[in-house]
């Protein structure tokens, strides 16, 4: 008996939905393993000798050989990869040569700072990016539209490192509107008790409003600098999507029925580009998590971006692999979340 | 738009709540990059951040006088006596000395401290293994004489004066055995715990370390060195020099370290700030890999290269104040350092030397780190060598990548820097003028330069007890290397730092470990 085709407009049967979910999960797993294999191979092609990095310049041949053996580098590459995967399955990411700590502990310590910075930046970028795109699409060709396009161009073309230094010079050194680099002023370092690892939340929980205000004073500038990049992307893509929709028949029909410009934009067009917006936001968020290295350097922000950069400079293979896996997982996960949200919000994708 | 402007203003208002906090009165706040730090155990830490801390956390039996570094002064030892065999020293320990834990100093602590360095066999251990010590025999060289005396012996042919130099190095810091062993795990002599804690008798002790974020030291009032004047030292990781400069300028830190020439220029004349350029035991040099190409093996090329290094142009014009011209392998300030600078930039003379040797169309690749100031110097050298008819192709890379290739002899020439490992002339002689052909990756080895005679002289200098004779030996070796070696040593670095002008008593010496916080007031 042939399976009946789903009727137009109705939801797909349960088995199809389950199959889709399983396929997605399998695809996630395969992508993760692929990512691991690729990074692992890349780290082995690096011209930097990790044994020399650990053993030091003055190590004897015997010490060098011992360190090489301890690292398992005297084994075939496939054996090394299998060993890495096996350890990973037990939640063991290895020991960082740089910090002498388990990589998982290092990531637990540094990732909250990056999440805090990236999330705040994303909120900033989403709020202002969407607002700017709506304003631009509301009156294309107007001054507002030109401003939106200029900001998009600025966000894309100005290096974030330079913008960060300029921001510090203006808002910290000249105007005194922002606090300096770091997450808190020195006087708070003695008293802040880390509970969640997120300084904003921990300072709020401390019950000391001054400390919380100080944390905000430190974070807002890197958030704006980092958020500008994501905001530029959101504004540009959302504006284009809104303008594209506005030339479609249903918009012309709504206009003919006498609907106002604002109503058409918000009630008719915006819901139809929501899927695009969600995807853009999710991908921007993943980029912010991974791409905040320069902002973290300028603002002395102790996040995973800087941790990974230091690991790369010193050929700390377990740390490089661990951080890559973490960021890669975030990418994959956020993609999946974006897909799911698009599926939920846009009936056309079901 | 009407709604956006008020939102932006509101955001600005929130930010305007920020007050510019001066540093706490009892705390010295320092901004520097601490990304190099991996462990504050003196048996392991060998980077700038860690060795700078050791002098303040630990004491050694003997240490350099901060005001006159070549003079060794008693510290945890009150006196010492060489043995009749010239292969031992007996130290009398300070009777009143205590560690920050309250435990008194004992001969056992000295034996434990030096022995664990050798047994752990980590990067800085080579400083002590030069004495002929290894993990199996070290215990036999360290003896408790009585409750107040300890005897240190060695098998290598080195003089007691040289051994004293080694015992003044950070790796020879005396660790509180009882505290370290109380935190021992898997026979690591407390190495894991000491990565972020301290067990010494220095003027400070570690209160908190978050690697690559912050190092907080607090006063050790019972230190034999006396209680420090400030209660806390806070070293915060600020990787970007421009950000360090801004922090200092705003008064949010008291000292900003390792600034660039640009930052110092911007800070000069600013109210409340003073700048200093402290000579460092760090040399910048070109070295040729003589095994890579017959031309690079030709001494005429080495000589011509000495006239193609634009010493003054780079030191004075390109990197103002960050370097001084220095051409010998012992940095200025070291015992026996020769400050002769016989070479100056002269492309015509270089051309004549190359022509006489029949070398035409000379070209080579210069590998160097992609970080400042290496790339700036390399590009300047590209220009200055071109005027002498030598084509230089600059090949930048990650420091670790360049270093790996140089150690594997996979390069033609490299621009590099060399810092002293300890405060004795042998540290650089054993690098530039020593190739024992046993796989030790000295600078001479990296140049594939075979020098049995100079290697013998290097060993002889460590065996010499008479300081004047030692100086003569090192000066003769420096003259030889200056005249005939595949190196062009051109510059000695200065550490550019800026301090708030209310700061008094801060002392920093030529070697990385010579950083003294205990007398600082503000």
From TrEMBL, chain A:
Residue ranges constituting the ABC transmembrane type-1 domain according to the UniProt record: 111-338
Keyword Transport: yes
TM helices/strands, residue ranges: 21-42, 115-138, 150-175, 215-238, 269-288, 319-344
Keywords, sorted A to Z: Cell inner membrane, Cell membrane, Membrane, Transmembrane, Transmembrane helix, Transport
Annotated compartments: Cell inner membrane; Cell membrane
Any Gene Ontology CC annotation: plasma membrane
Pfam families: BPD_transp_1, BPD_transp_1_N
Domain of life of the native organism: Bacteria
Membrane disposition: Multi-pass membrane protein
CDD domains: TM_PBP2 (cd06261)
SUPFAM superfamilies in alphabetical order: MetI-like
Keyword Cell membrane included in the entry's annotation: yes
InterPro entries named in the record: BPD_transp_1_N (IPR045621), MetI-like (IPR000515), MetI-like_sf (IPR035906)
Main location: membrane
GO molecular function: dipeptide transmembrane transporter activity
Family: Belongs to the binding-protein-dependent transport system permease family.
Name this protein carries in UniProt: ABC transporter permease
From TrEMBL, chain B:
One Pfam family from the record: SBP_bac_5
InterPro entries xref list: Peptide/Ni-bd, SBP_5, SBP_5_CS, SBP_5_dom
GO biological process: peptide transport
MF terms (GO), sorted A to Z: peptide transmembrane transporter activity
Highest taxon of source: Bacteria
Any Gene Ontology CC annotation: ATP-binding cassette (ABC) transporter complex
Solute-binding protein family domain residues: 71-437
Membrane-spanning intervals of the chain: none
Keyword Signal among record annotations: yes
Keywords from the UniProt entry: Signal
Signal peptide (from-to): 1-21
Keyword Glycosyltransferase: no
PANTHER family xref list: ABC TRANSPORTER, PERIPLASMIC OLIGO-PEPTIDE BINDING PROTEIN, PUTATIVE-RELATED (PTHR30290:SF34), PERIPLASMIC BINDING COMPONENT OF ABC TRANSPORTER (PTHR30290)
Similarity-based family: Belongs to the bacterial solute-binding protein 5 family.
Protein name, entry field: ABC transporter substrate-binding protein
Organism encoding this protein: Pantoea phytobeneficialis
